[in-house]
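Next up, sample data:
>
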Amino acid sequence: MRAGLVALVLICSSFPCSAWWGDGHAVLTRAAVAALPAETPEFLRGGADLAVHCAYDPDLIKNRAVPHLSDAEHPEHYLDVELLEGAALPATRYEFVALCARLNQSPSKVGLLPYATVEWTERLTMALAEHRRWPENEAVRAKALVYAGILSHYAADLTQPLHTTIHFDGRVGADGKLPHSGVHEKVDALVERAGLAPADLAEQVEVKAYDDAMAAIQAALETTHAQVDRVYELEAELGDVTHPEVAAFTADRARAAVALTASLYLTAWRQSETVRLPGWLHR
Protein backbone atom coordinates (compact mmCIF):
# COMPACT_ATOMS: atom_id res chain seq x y z
CA MET A 1 0.00 0.00 0.00
CA ARG A 2 3.01 2.18 0.40
CA ALA A 3 4.83 0.91 -2.69
CA GLY A 4 7.14 3.47 -4.16
CA LEU A 5 7.26 5.56 -0.99
CA VAL A 6 10.70 6.46 0.29
CA ALA A 7 11.62 4.23 3.21
CA LEU A 8 10.28 5.63 6.44
CA VAL A 9 13.67 5.44 8.05
CA LEU A 10 14.89 8.01 5.52
CA ILE A 11 11.78 10.10 5.88
CA CYS A 12 12.19 10.27 9.62
CA SER A 13 15.73 11.59 9.24
CA SER A 14 14.28 14.77 7.79
CA PHE A 15 11.08 14.89 9.87
CA PRO A 16 11.00 15.00 13.65
CA CYS A 17 8.00 12.69 14.25
CA SER A 18 7.40 14.24 17.66
CA ALA A 19 3.81 14.21 18.78
CA TRP A 20 2.78 17.29 20.77
CA TRP A 21 5.38 19.94 21.36
CA GLY A 22 7.33 19.56 24.61
CA ASP A 23 5.14 21.83 26.67
CA GLY A 24 2.12 19.98 25.33
CA HIS A 25 3.53 16.76 26.76
CA ALA A 26 4.11 18.60 30.03
CA VAL A 27 0.48 19.74 30.20
CA LEU A 28 -0.83 16.25 29.43
CA THR A 29 1.47 14.53 31.93
CA ARG A 30 0.64 16.97 34.71
CA ALA A 31 -3.07 16.51 34.00
CA ALA A 32 -2.78 12.72 34.05
CA VAL A 33 -1.08 12.78 37.45
CA ALA A 34 -3.71 15.19 38.77
CA ALA A 35 -6.49 12.89 37.53
CA LEU A 36 -5.33 9.91 39.60
CA PRO A 37 -7.78 8.61 42.21
CA ALA A 38 -6.99 8.55 45.93
CA GLU A 39 -6.31 4.80 45.90
CA THR A 40 -3.00 5.40 44.08
CA PRO A 41 0.13 6.15 46.13
CA GLU A 42 0.51 9.66 47.47
CA PHE A 43 4.03 9.96 46.06
CA LEU A 44 2.67 9.26 42.56
CA ARG A 45 -0.14 11.79 42.90
CA GLY A 46 2.36 14.35 44.15
CA GLY A 47 5.14 13.54 41.71
CA ALA A 48 4.13 15.55 38.67
CA ASP A 49 7.35 17.57 38.52
CA LEU A 50 9.62 14.54 38.07
CA ALA A 51 7.15 12.80 35.73
CA VAL A 52 6.94 15.92 33.55
CA HIS A 53 10.74 16.21 33.51
CA CYS A 54 11.00 12.66 32.15
CA ALA A 55 8.11 13.01 29.69
CA TYR A 56 10.42 15.04 27.44
CA ASP A 57 13.05 12.31 27.23
CA PRO A 58 11.66 10.09 24.43
CA ASP A 59 11.90 13.04 22.04
CA LEU A 60 15.14 14.36 23.53
CA ILE A 61 17.04 11.14 22.81
CA LYS A 62 16.19 11.21 19.11
CA ASN A 63 19.43 13.10 18.65
CA ARG A 64 22.14 12.70 16.02
CA ALA A 65 24.77 12.77 18.75
CA VAL A 66 23.52 9.35 19.89
CA PRO A 67 22.86 7.65 16.53
CA HIS A 68 22.25 4.12 17.79
CA LEU A 69 19.80 5.28 20.41
CA SER A 70 18.10 7.63 17.97
CA ASP A 71 17.71 4.85 15.40
CA ALA A 72 16.13 2.58 18.00
CA GLU A 73 13.89 5.30 19.42
CA HIS A 74 12.27 6.73 16.30
CA PRO A 75 9.90 3.79 15.57
CA GLU A 76 8.65 3.82 19.18
CA HIS A 77 6.62 6.96 18.42
CA TYR A 78 4.26 5.82 15.65
CA LEU A 79 2.43 2.94 14.02
CA ASP A 80 1.30 3.27 10.40
CA VAL A 81 -1.91 1.27 10.45
CA GLU A 82 -2.22 1.07 6.67
CA LEU A 83 0.98 -0.97 6.39
CA LEU A 84 -0.58 -3.80 8.40
CA GLU A 85 -2.94 -4.46 5.46
CA GLY A 86 -5.85 -5.22 7.77
CA ALA A 87 -3.95 -7.71 9.93
CA ALA A 88 -4.73 -7.70 13.64
CA LEU A 89 -2.10 -6.19 15.87
CA PRO A 90 -0.32 -8.98 17.81
CA ALA A 91 -0.07 -8.83 21.58
CA THR A 92 3.72 -8.67 21.88
CA ARG A 93 6.61 -6.87 20.19
CA TYR A 94 8.27 -9.94 18.72
CA GLU A 95 5.00 -11.40 17.47
CA PHE A 96 4.63 -8.07 15.70
CA VAL A 97 8.13 -8.40 14.24
CA ALA A 98 7.12 -11.82 12.88
CA LEU A 99 3.95 -10.31 11.39
CA CYS A 100 5.98 -7.61 9.65
CA ALA A 101 8.22 -10.32 8.15
CA ARG A 102 5.15 -12.08 6.74
CA LEU A 103 3.95 -8.77 5.28
CA ASN A 104 7.42 -8.06 3.86
CA GLN A 105 7.62 -4.89 5.94
CA SER A 106 10.34 -3.61 8.23
CA PRO A 107 9.09 -3.08 11.80
CA SER A 108 10.92 0.25 11.85
CA LYS A 109 8.87 1.39 8.85
CA VAL A 110 5.57 0.33 10.36
CA GLY A 111 6.36 1.63 13.84
CA LEU A 112 6.17 0.17 17.34
CA LEU A 113 4.21 2.72 19.37
CA PRO A 114 1.67 0.35 20.98
CA TYR A 115 4.48 -1.87 22.24
CA ALA A 116 6.43 1.03 23.71
CA THR A 117 3.24 2.08 25.51
CA VAL A 118 2.37 -1.30 26.99
CA GLU A 119 5.98 -2.13 27.90
CA TRP A 120 6.43 1.10 29.85
CA THR A 121 3.11 0.40 31.57
CA GLU A 122 4.55 -2.91 32.71
CA ARG A 123 7.81 -1.29 33.81
CA LEU A 124 5.74 1.03 35.96
CA THR A 125 3.83 -2.00 37.28
CA MET A 126 7.09 -3.57 38.44
CA ALA A 127 8.32 -0.37 40.08
CA LEU A 128 5.02 -0.02 41.92
CA ALA A 129 5.27 -3.64 43.06
CA GLU A 130 8.61 -2.71 44.60
CA HIS A 131 6.98 0.29 46.23
CA ARG A 132 4.41 -1.95 47.84
CA ARG A 133 7.20 -3.96 49.46
CA TRP A 134 9.47 -1.00 50.28
CA PRO A 135 7.10 1.99 50.61
CA GLU A 136 9.72 4.25 52.19
CA ASN A 137 12.42 3.60 49.58
CA GLU A 138 13.06 6.93 47.83
CA ALA A 139 14.95 5.35 44.93
CA VAL A 140 11.99 3.11 44.13
CA ARG A 141 9.65 6.10 44.22
CA ALA A 142 11.92 8.08 41.91
CA LYS A 143 12.17 5.17 39.51
CA ALA A 144 8.40 4.84 39.35
CA LEU A 145 8.01 8.53 38.54
CA VAL A 146 10.65 8.30 35.80
CA TYR A 147 8.75 5.38 34.27
CA ALA A 148 5.44 7.26 34.64
CA GLY A 149 6.82 10.26 32.76
CA ILE A 150 8.17 8.18 29.89
CA LEU A 151 4.92 6.19 29.69
CA SER A 152 2.99 9.46 29.52
CA HIS A 153 4.93 10.48 26.43
CA TYR A 154 4.07 7.36 24.46
CA ALA A 155 0.44 7.29 25.61
CA ALA A 156 0.04 10.90 24.47
CA ASP A 157 1.71 10.14 21.13
CA LEU A 158 -0.85 7.39 20.66
CA THR A 159 -3.67 9.94 20.77
CA GLN A 160 -2.18 12.12 18.00
CA PRO A 161 -3.83 10.88 14.77
CA LEU A 162 -0.86 11.62 12.51
CA HIS A 163 1.19 9.12 14.52
CA THR A 164 -1.03 6.31 13.29
CA THR A 165 -0.84 6.75 9.52
CA ILE A 166 1.36 6.83 6.45
CA HIS A 167 -0.21 10.26 5.78
CA PHE A 168 1.68 11.74 8.72
CA ASP A 169 2.64 15.03 7.05
CA GLY A 170 0.25 15.44 4.13
CA ARG A 171 -1.60 12.90 2.04
CA VAL A 172 0.64 10.43 0.24
CA GLY A 173 0.10 11.03 -3.48
CA ALA A 174 -0.46 8.63 -6.34
CA ASP A 175 3.29 8.76 -6.93
CA GLY A 176 3.87 7.38 -3.43
CA LYS A 177 5.51 10.57 -2.19
CA LEU A 178 4.78 12.33 1.07
CA PRO A 179 4.39 16.09 0.52
CA HIS A 180 5.73 17.22 3.94
CA SER A 181 2.98 19.82 4.03
CA GLY A 182 3.65 20.94 7.60
CA VAL A 183 0.32 19.66 8.91
CA HIS A 184 2.06 17.40 11.43
CA GLU A 185 3.75 20.30 13.17
CA LYS A 186 0.47 22.20 13.27
CA VAL A 187 -1.22 19.32 15.08
CA ASP A 188 1.75 18.85 17.41
CA ALA A 189 1.46 22.49 18.44
CA LEU A 190 -2.24 22.43 19.30
CA VAL A 191 -2.13 21.43 22.98
CA GLU A 192 0.62 23.90 23.80
CA ARG A 193 -0.86 26.78 21.80
CA ALA A 194 -4.39 26.22 23.13
CA GLY A 195 -3.25 27.01 26.67
CA LEU A 196 -5.14 24.10 28.20
CA ALA A 197 -4.99 23.93 31.99
CA PRO A 198 -3.92 20.57 33.48
CA ALA A 199 -6.34 20.92 36.40
CA ASP A 200 -9.26 21.45 34.04
CA LEU A 201 -8.30 18.49 31.88
CA ALA A 202 -7.96 16.28 34.96
CA GLU A 203 -11.51 17.07 35.99
CA GLN A 204 -12.90 16.23 32.54
CA VAL A 205 -11.72 12.63 32.19
CA GLU A 206 -12.80 9.24 33.47
CA VAL A 207 -9.97 7.16 34.89
CA LYS A 208 -10.39 3.40 34.96
CA ALA A 209 -8.17 0.38 35.35
CA TYR A 210 -7.98 -1.96 32.37
CA ASP A 211 -8.26 -5.72 32.64
CA ASP A 212 -6.04 -5.96 29.56
CA ALA A 213 -3.73 -2.99 29.00
CA MET A 214 -2.71 -4.04 25.50
CA ALA A 215 -6.32 -4.45 24.39
CA ALA A 216 -7.09 -0.97 25.73
CA ILE A 217 -4.08 0.46 23.93
CA GLN A 218 -5.17 -1.18 20.68
CA ALA A 219 -8.68 0.24 21.11
CA ALA A 220 -7.22 3.71 21.72
CA LEU A 221 -5.09 3.33 18.59
CA GLU A 222 -8.18 2.50 16.52
CA THR A 223 -10.05 5.50 17.91
CA THR A 224 -7.11 7.77 17.17
CA HIS A 225 -6.61 6.45 13.65
CA ALA A 226 -10.29 7.14 12.92
CA GLN A 227 -9.49 10.84 13.42
CA VAL A 228 -6.99 11.06 10.54
CA ASP A 229 -9.62 12.22 8.06
CA ARG A 230 -10.77 14.81 10.58
CA VAL A 231 -7.27 16.26 10.71
CA TYR A 232 -7.29 16.80 6.97
CA GLU A 233 -10.81 18.24 7.04
CA LEU A 234 -9.47 20.87 9.46
CA GLU A 235 -6.07 21.30 7.82
CA ALA A 236 -6.67 24.84 6.56
CA GLU A 237 -7.83 26.00 10.02
CA LEU A 238 -5.27 24.24 12.21
CA GLY A 239 -3.16 27.36 12.62
CA ASP A 240 -6.00 29.04 14.52
CA VAL A 241 -6.54 27.35 17.89
CA THR A 242 -9.51 29.66 18.55
CA HIS A 243 -11.43 28.23 15.60
CA PRO A 244 -14.37 26.39 17.23
CA GLU A 245 -13.83 23.10 15.41
CA VAL A 246 -10.06 23.18 15.97
CA ALA A 247 -10.60 23.98 19.64
CA ALA A 248 -13.02 21.07 19.96
CA PHE A 249 -10.62 18.70 18.21
CA THR A 250 -7.74 19.83 20.43
CA ALA A 251 -9.75 19.37 23.61
CA ASP A 252 -10.92 15.93 22.50
CA ARG A 253 -7.39 14.70 21.78
CA ALA A 254 -6.03 16.23 24.99
CA ARG A 255 -8.72 14.54 27.06
CA ALA A 256 -8.03 11.26 25.27
CA ALA A 257 -4.33 11.53 26.14
CA VAL A 258 -4.98 12.33 29.78
CA ALA A 259 -7.60 9.60 30.20
CA LEU A 260 -5.40 6.95 28.59
CA THR A 261 -2.31 7.93 30.56
CA ALA A 262 -4.03 8.15 33.94
CA SER A 263 -5.88 4.89 33.28
CA LEU A 264 -2.60 3.14 32.47
CA TYR A 265 -1.14 4.52 35.71
CA LEU A 266 -4.11 3.12 37.64
CA THR A 267 -3.84 -0.17 35.77
CA ALA A 268 -0.17 -0.44 36.70
CA TRP A 269 -0.96 0.26 40.35
CA ARG A 270 -3.67 -2.39 40.60
CA GLN A 271 -1.68 -4.97 38.67
CA SER A 272 1.35 -4.34 40.88
CA GLU A 273 -0.52 -6.01 43.73
CA THR A 274 -0.34 -9.35 41.89
CA VAL A 275 3.41 -9.21 41.19
CA ARG A 276 5.56 -11.69 43.09
CA LEU A 277 9.01 -10.22 43.45
CA PRO A 278 11.95 -12.66 43.58
CA GLY A 279 13.37 -13.60 46.95
CA TRP A 280 16.87 -12.46 45.98
CA LEU A 281 15.74 -8.86 45.51
CA HIS A 282 16.69 -6.47 48.29
CA ARG A 283 16.11 -2.70 48.22
